[in-house]
Every structure is written in structure tokens, then in C-alpha cells.
Amino acid sequence: MATKHEQILEYITHLHVGEKISVRRIAKALSLSEGTAYRAIKEAENQGLVSTIERVGTIRIEKKKKENIEKLTYAEIVNIVDGQVLGGRQGLHKTLNRFVIGAMTKDAMMRYVTAGNLLIVGNRYDSHKLALEAGSAVLITGGFDTDPNTIRLADELDLPIISSSYDTFTVAAMINRAIYDQLIKKEIILVQDILIPLSETFVLYTHDEVVRWHELNEQTSHSRYPVVDELTRVQGMIAAKDVVDVEKQTTIDKVMTTNPITVSEHTSVASAAHIMVWEGIELLPVVDSQNQLTGVVSRQDVLKALQMIQRQPQVGETIEDIVVSRMEQVPGSEGKYQCSITPQMSNHLGTVSHGVMTTLVTEAGSRILRTKSKGDLVVENMTVYFLKPVQIDSTITIIPRVLELGRKHAKIDVELYHEDRIVGKALVMAQFID
Predict the structure, then answer these.
(1) Residues 6 or more apart from 390 whose CB is under 8 A from it?
(2) What homologous superfamily is domain 66-187 in, according to CATH?
(3) Mean per-residue pLDDT for 393-412?
(4) Considering the entire predicted model, what is its pTM?
(5) How far apart are CA 214 and CA 291, in angstroms?
(6) Where is the CBS domain positioned along the sequence (predicted)?
């Protein structure tokens, strides 16, 4: 039987896209408390099923697939630009294809405005009407209003008219940044992209006997299985070491490892890899918000995914990409690197940020270990001894040195210099992930 939380999520999923949702309505429809309904709506928002807009409320939106994640709904645009919805609220769930800045003559502008667009324009009432008639939503900058007839047209066509107090350049930059952030999210491989689904996962139930483990082991050659109850909620993990010299009639719940580490489908593969390496885990159960099993990921699949990520070209550039791309080997040296500090790498004081310094330390450690035929690493511990300010347009020299090197662990000393003056020093303890 589904839990109250699951009932609400199921109810929301079956609502029409664009339909308005309220805590009171859901609580009344399902005879539940408003607190339970509120928590479920927040979970639905995290899952991308609904969007909450100030002065409008919560509406059901179409859940975007990962390949379409860089597209934004008009509801998201309202939140990005701190906007006010003047009309066309029923169309807030729709996705825009692109935005057009109306900084041109009316005739020239209309050549670019088509259905599914967002026209960003000031208080040009005629342009607002023409854009709606062409199937485009409108974002009015400068905090201006529009004609009442245009608002009525927006309501008829279900095309939002949004007003923002920001100027045209600012809102265009804000929307562009949001799309860019979505591109970066799209490139991040999540557990849901590589998991073995529940339908293909071999599981044991708490009431099963150990003999069942032996049957699965003979059938699949696997030695580790998640243990679930009747509602497929994860109760434990069982491996070969747990059943050694155990009577075959013993129930699984007597020998399993309880309270196993789990991850959600939205956990990044990099985080899963860190957990598996840190905890020495070969198989991770993947669960939903109710701790119900949705699948598993193996250490081998995680490492393959990480290797694939490194071979893919990046579309959205992160701060780490910027730092790593500008870190080069000093000509004529071995194991010495340098990096020029750009404005993106600075803090509000105009000096290099501590995050950039730790990125340089980690990357230098990775590079020096690769020269010794070692693969990627997970940082277990980093101790930074001191940091001194380095301003923009300066060049930092990074010198890593391996202090200890084992089969699975390494200890690296990294020094950072600016104009032959030491500005940072760190000791890194790392574990190899392959």
C-alpha cells in the first residue's frame, strides 16, 4: 500500500500541466493534514513536477527530460528575473525555445519573433500585442505595465506577459546565465543515468533464508545483494562474508548488515565514487525519498562512467574548468606548473580565492601521480598550512612532491609560489579510485 507521501506525488503527477495546486486543495482531496501536503509539494518541486511563483502560486509543470534540461519554462523565467505576471498565467508551464531582444525597429524585430519565443522589450505596447499574436510570450523590462487589451489577449492565448524591474541587458544576462547553468547540470552524470533498475536487480527479502543467497549466487555469480522488506524498502546488504558457516535455514535478517549506505537517483556519479572508495563498497543501493529500492550501482559501472566523463568535451565551463585549463607545465621543467590568475578566479577583494588555491593543489597532485602511472584520486584529507593573498593577473607557480606512494594511497606535498615567494602550502592525503 502506498504511503501518504506517495499518494500525493501520484495525485500531482496526474494533474494537467498548467493546473494550479494548493496545500489546502490537496489536503482536502486526499483527506490528509496540510503539513503532509506541504512537504509532498516541496518534494514535487525538487523533482521538477511543480513550480512556485510569488503572487501566482504553485502550478503543475511538465517534467523536463535531461536532454532538454537547458530549456526553461516561463515559470522559471519569472523566478529568475524576480518578475510579476501581468497576464497569461495559464501558459506559465510552457517551455521557451529562445529569447529575442527587441532593440530594433518593429518590422525588423518581428522577423525574429516566432511561436515559443520570449520577447524582451520595454514599454512598446504595439510590440507586446504583435509578439503575442505571433505565439511569443513577452518580458517587459524597466518595471513597465502594458495595455489592458494586451493582457486580455495574453489570457486568451495562454501566453505569459511578465514585468521585471531590471533593464533589458540585465534580464538577458540573467536568463543566459540560467541556461548556461542548466547546460552544466546536463553534463553532470547522475546515478540515475547508470543504475541497474529494480526490474533487473536481484534482491533478497528479510524473511528469506540463507539458502536463497546460495541459489542466487549460483544463478548470477554475484555475491552481494540488497535486502528489502515487503514494500521494497532497503533494510540491509548481504555479502559472501555474512553467510560463511551459517546454517542455510537462518533468515537473512539475522545475518545481513543493517543500515547500509544508500544514494538517491539524483546523486552525482562522482559523489557515489567517493562514497564507494571511502567506505570500501562494491555495490550501492539506490533509493527514493521513502527509502524504497529503485536499483543499484556497482563500483565497476561508476568507474567506467567517470572514465567516460573525462573523454567528453565540456559545453558549460565551470570555475574548475577555467582553473585547470590555465594550469600549464613550466617549460623545461618536470613536475612544476604555473597558472595565471583571471578575474573569475578572484574573491570580492580582487585576490585569488581559497577555492581556486585548493583546486590548484588537487590538480597538481593528480598530475604528478599520473606521471607515476597512477590513475585518478579521491582526496581524503587536505591540510593547508598558510595562504597569502595573490592579486588578479599574477602568475602562481605550483610544485607538487610525492612523499609516500602505496598501492591504494598517496601523500603529496604541494607548494605554491608567486614571484619566488611562497604563498601557500598543503599536504594532501589521497586514495586511488581505480
Answers:
(1) 341, 351, 352, 396, 418, 423
(2) HprK N-terminal domain-like (3.40.1390.20)
(3) 91
(4) 0.52
(5) 26
(6) 256-314
